[in-house]
Amino acid sequence: MTVGELLSRGKTLLKNCGVENYANEARWIFESVFDCGREYVFLHSDGEANEAKSREYLEKINSRINGTPVQYIIGSWDFFGESFLVGNGVLIPRPETELLVDFALDYLADKSEPVVFDLCAGSGCIGLSIAAHMPNARVFLIEKYPEAFNYLSKNLSRLGCSNAKAVHGDISDGFAVFDLPKPELILSNPPYIESACLPKLQREVQREPATALDGGESGYDFYEIISQKWLPCCGGAAAVECGEGQADFIKSLFSHWFAETKTLVDFNGIERAVVGTERNKNVI
Ligand code: GLN
Q: With a threshold of 0.90, does the pTM exceed it?
């Protein structure tokens, strides 16, 4: 089979199985298997495709048809201009999470050597983006689950962030048990889906780790932990991602610690993050 035929076969298979973004996904999988850029297909369309790679390509197309997220098949995904390694056991970075990074870079712009925490760091996309864009910041990324921690460590070395440190631990233990400096800024995209809603999620999302999605019965478990066990030590500001309809409750938690709370709205018009600034000085 030629390169052109192989790629079209992949596209058709995905299309027939209802994969919405079939053309791009077939191409991305092709480019990752053949380790090539976009122009390769144009230049070699009539050339015979390598047999072993063709088999691997069709196996991967099949795995996509069976519900594996395309990001896991490719093995990496872009976030805030960098490529992050992803796979089983780690949440795939989402574009709306870039809101937290935008806020953080803006907030930190005039700080000299700010300490920043990324709680429930997963792939590290939030904290490592900060570290990469702000060499003077010291970023600590905390992640509990070994599979995710493994991706976090790999992404840290891949980006070469000498100002970032991956910390293996459970945020429900609280700041006090970690041997860390007090932070100027706390960031987190914690699990926030109500446990009962997990079975209703899109099948691709169900392939992502439940531990990265499940926010407990109310969906707010991690915001309560952050508010009770981490915000007391936070000197400056905090920003957390949240699900649709959750911002008001999180604002009420944050207003105990911060004089100013606001929400960040994503490109779908959904209140996607809560930010607290102007730390109340009368609380411990
Ligand atoms: N911080 C990571 C992200 O935003 C992982 C979040 C999580 O596992 N809940 O993608």
A: yes
Q: Is 189 in the pocket of ligand 1 (CB under 6 A)?
A: yes
- State the DSSP H helix or E strand holding residue 118, giving kind and residue range, or none if neither: strand 115-119
Ligand 1 centroid, distance to 45 Cα (angstroms): 39
The set of residues, in sequence order, having a beta carbon less than 8 Å from that of 59 and lying 6+ positions away, is none
Of 284, 280, 272, which Cα lies nearest the Cα of 254? 280
Nearest atom in ligand 1 to the alpha carbon of residue 79 is 10
If DSSP codes are grouped into helix, strand and coil, which group holds residue 136? Answer: coil
Percentage of the chain lying above the pLDDT 90 cut: 97
Give the distance (Å) from ligand 1 centre to CA of residue 153. 14
Strand partners, 238: 186, 276
- For the Cβ of 219 lying below 6 angstroms from any atom of ligand 1, the answer is no
Q: Which pair of tokens denotes residue 158? A: 């891949």
Mean pLDDT, the chain, rounded, equals: 97
